[in-house]
Fold:
Amino acid sequence: MKVSTLLLILSLLGASSAAWACSYDGQFNNPFAESYPGSLSIALATQRAISQQQITQTDKLEGQQGLRRASWWLQLFVKQITLLPNEVHIYLVDSQLWSKYQVGTPLKIHSDPPPNGEVVLMLSESALDNLVSKNISITQAMRMGLVNTNESASKMINIGI
Structure:
């Protein structure tokens, strides 16, 4: 009976960690599934901006190459946006990659999803690419709907607009 209990616990742990997995972990992600509230509107705004040639489309990279590139861009992004809140979770909606920025500590890439009530900044990889390449500003990205925040962002200060 103890073995079956252990197997049940292990299978539940495996199932819950799959929910945290991003596409770089080899998980299939439907880009039009709303994995986090508000993420679907970011994905649609990104496709609209690409089709209207307001931003360039980013080539898709998978696995470790994609994770390294996204990590590098996120590092550049938090350095460029000087007025981020003291703590914010950054969510890449297309790869479902979570990161956590906290003042005074290194950016944590591939973090767990935040608990309810935490500030979340959502964007797509194409938006991130265009922001760090300085093709668009954060103000333009927000106006186009490429960058958005969750309801908890009422706690959020101006992010450089």
